[in-house]
């Protein structure tokens, strides 16, 4: 017999009702179902619809899909540091190692704080441990600047897990995407650590002897930040190439279009994320970008809007979150189009915020139930009419 | 008739805890969000509302039998508006800085739901003395929530209490930053929510 399975079978009696370690029941249960598909099935009575793949297995696909963007993000952290510090940018493993050391503490903090709260709440309420935070906890470090202090990340993660998730009833019940609430909390609480032209986007210290010290006078703004603050007339060819590959300053995981596209394809092929949402976010963003450019409100070409900033990452990984997105099939188009529309609208028309993707997705999270309600109601009306005709 | 009978005591202590205007009745939230970014305005606002509720309750209760039922709201408003104007003038005369911070919110006490609620629900049916106690109780019940929210917001939003720096300078040098969201009204809504949450889980058994 499999040793892991044996281990769980051995400790099972301990955590049953009345067992010595009953207080750890939901923790053990959580890890067991994480390792093995549970062998219990639904009780008789009522109608149950089951997918062959349960949500713990589904979560794996998303984690795997996030990997290219995360790994590339680590490399880019090292690359930007070397670029700013005037160091050697060709040493791949050196750069990656530096980025790995810079990003790893963030991943650990986000997981420890988030899972700690989730485990505690599940145990306290006698519920099962849900696995949704595995994805959230991976996304959170990817959408913050690399220089963000860890204590801020810990506070923001705790805030979003409690106030965006557990208050609404835990995984699957939340109205807003918890990872985005984390970012929004940081964005409004500590604006100087999240935006600005100081060393927010590029790590400027050595870590364990790796990397380069950068002098304080240098600054590295994101392309969108530059567009918002400095005189600007479109991106040049090199910037566009860098933006597609991902070698621009930005939040850790958001920079590379190619890495995100690989993850996006995986999500689409496995059917985890809805291609309708992704497509319509891009269509909405491109259309609005085109309108804004045609109206002379911005110098940024319409398709450049799609490759800089967090647009791709938001469209692929955040807008498509099955819990907070619209669930009706037609509703997904409206939901996506409006996200793209509002994201570009905020970028172009609001001088305070160079990036609008976070705000757009959060706003549409709020409207997703309304969109669904409208479509469901119109279907009901249509069918009622059809039934009355007969 | 005793001055501090059981009913009179209940009229005073009820609103402080089990029938708190903010935590239980969820009234007067707008001003609770608007004036609590610092401790001093929160306290002044709480005291102003206490004084106004107490005396408007007292006055309306005194004349309750002579108010024609059809125009009672107008009469109540006249009394409240007069008291609010007096309080506002006193604030301007003696604590000018705080009254500038409070700006329109002192004037807006007229529209505070707690006031009209107490006048309609209590003062119109009860004798002057219990009405006065009820007014003080409701005002203080409102005030303690305000002070609590103001304390949290000023401590984390500005690092100060009553304008004096409380968070040590060494912490700022170590990388600590004030939380900008605490200064925004959005965060005070969440804090009021937390107060209500705590209040309800403490008083769960008694309901």
Could you provide a short overview of the structure?
The complex is a heterodimer of chains A (390) and B (207). Chain A is mainly α and 390 residues long.
Structure characterization notes:
The complex is a heterodimer of chains A (390) and B (207). Chain A is built from 16 helices and no strands. Chain A is an all-alpha fold and 390 residues long. Chain A has two domains: 3-35; 55-378, Ammonium transporter fold (Orthogonal Bundle). The longest helix of chain A is centred in the N-terminal third of the chain and has 34 residues, at 92-125. The radius of gyration of chain A is 23 Å and the shape is globular. Chain A starts with a helix and ends with a helix. A two-stranded antiparallel sheet of chain B has the order 1-2. In chain B, helix 1 (6-13) packs parallel to helix 8 (128-157), helix 3 (39-62) packs parallel to helix 7 (113-123) and helix 3 runs antiparallel to helix 8. Helix content of chain B is 68%, strand content 2%. The interface between A and B is small, with 11 and 10 residues.
Q: In sequence order, what are the helices and strands of chain A, one letter per element?
A: HHHHHHHHHHHHHHHH
Q: In terms of structural class, how would the helical and strand content of chain B be classed? A: mainly alpha
How do the strands of the widest beta sheet of chain B line up side by side? 1-2
CA-atom Rg of chain A in angstroms = 23 Å
Order of helices and strands of chain B: HHHHHHHHEEHHH
CATH second-level architecture of the largest domain in chain A: Orthogonal Bundle
Number of helices of chain A: 16
Please name the CATH topology of the largest domain in chain A.
Answer: Ammonium transporter fold
Q: State the helical fraction of chain B.
A: 55-70%
N→C terminal distance of chain A: 62 Å
């Amino acid at each position: 017999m499999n040793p892991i399975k044996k281990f769980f079978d051995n400790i099972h009696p301990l955590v049953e009702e009345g067992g010595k370690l009953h207080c750890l029941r939901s923790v053990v249960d959580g890890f067991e179902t994480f390792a093995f598909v549970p062998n219990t099935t639904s009780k008789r009575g009522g109608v149950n619809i089951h997918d062959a793949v349960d949500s713990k297995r589904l979560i794996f696909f998303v984690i795997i899909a996030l990997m290219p963007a995360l790994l590339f993000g680590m490399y880019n952290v090292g690359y930007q540091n070397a670029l700013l510090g005037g160091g050697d940018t060709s040493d791949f493993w050196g750069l990656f190692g530096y980025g790995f050391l810079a990003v790893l503490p963030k991943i650990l903090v986000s997981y420890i704080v988030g899972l700690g709260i989730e485990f505690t709440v599940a145990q306290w309420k006698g519920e099962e441990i849900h696995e949704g935070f595995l994805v959230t906890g991976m996304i959170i470090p990817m959408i913050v600047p690399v220089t963000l202090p860890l204590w801020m990340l810990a506070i923001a993660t705790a805030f979003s897990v409690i106030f965006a998730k557990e208050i609404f009833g835990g995984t699957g019940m939340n109205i807003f995407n918890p990872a985005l609430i984390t970012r929004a909390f940081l964005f409004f609480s500590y604006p100087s650590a999240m935006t600005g032209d100081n060393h927010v986007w590029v790590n400027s210290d050595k870590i364990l002897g790796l990397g380069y010290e950068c002098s304080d006078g240098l600054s590295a703004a994101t392309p969108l930040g530059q567009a918002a603050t400095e005189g600007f007339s479109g991106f040049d060819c090199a910037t566009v190439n860098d933006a597609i590959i991902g070698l621009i300053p930005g939040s850790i995981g958001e920079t590379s279009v190619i890495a995100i596209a690989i993850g996006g394809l995986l999500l689409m092929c496995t059917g985890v994320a809805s291609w309708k949402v992704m497509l319509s976010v891009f269509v909405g963003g491109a259309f609005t970008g085109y309108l804004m450019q045609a109206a002379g409100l911005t110098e940024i070409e319409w398709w450049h809007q799609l490759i800089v900033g967090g647009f791709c990452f938001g469209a692929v990984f955040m807008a498509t979150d099955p819990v907070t997105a619209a669930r009706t099939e037609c509703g997904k188009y409206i939901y996506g189009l409006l996200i793209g529309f509002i994201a570009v609208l905020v970028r172009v028309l609001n001088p305070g915020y160079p990036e609008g993707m976070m705000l757009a997705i959060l706003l549409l999270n709020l409207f997703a139930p309304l969109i669904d309600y409208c479509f469901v109601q119109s279907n009901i009306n249509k069918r009622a009419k059809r039934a009355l005709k007969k | 008739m005793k001055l501090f009978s059981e009913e009179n005591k209940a009229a005073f202590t009820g609103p402080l805890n089990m029938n708190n205007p903010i935590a239980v009745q969820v009234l007067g939230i707008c001003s609770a969000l608007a004036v609590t970014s610092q401790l001093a305005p929160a306290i002044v606002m709480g005291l102003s509302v206490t004084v106004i509720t107490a005396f408007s309750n007292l006055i309306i209760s005194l004349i309750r039998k002579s108010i024609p039922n059809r125009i009672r709201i107008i009469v109540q408003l006249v009394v409240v508006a007069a008291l609010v104007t007096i309080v506002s003038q006193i604030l301007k005369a003696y604590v000018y800085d705080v009254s500038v911070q409070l700006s329109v919110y002192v004037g807006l006490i007229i529209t505070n739901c707690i006031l009209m609620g107490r006048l309609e629900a209590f003062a119109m049916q009860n004798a002057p003395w219990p009405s006065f106690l009820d007014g003080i109780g409701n005002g203080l019940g409102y005030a303690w929530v305000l002070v609590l929210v103001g304390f949290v917001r000023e401590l984390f939003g500005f690092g100060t209490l009553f304008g004096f720096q409380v968070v040590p300078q060494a912490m700022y040098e170590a990388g600590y930053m004030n939380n900008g969201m605490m200064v925004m009204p959005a965060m005070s809504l969440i804090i009021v929510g937390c107060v209500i949450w705590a209040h309800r889980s403490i008083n769960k058994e008694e309901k």
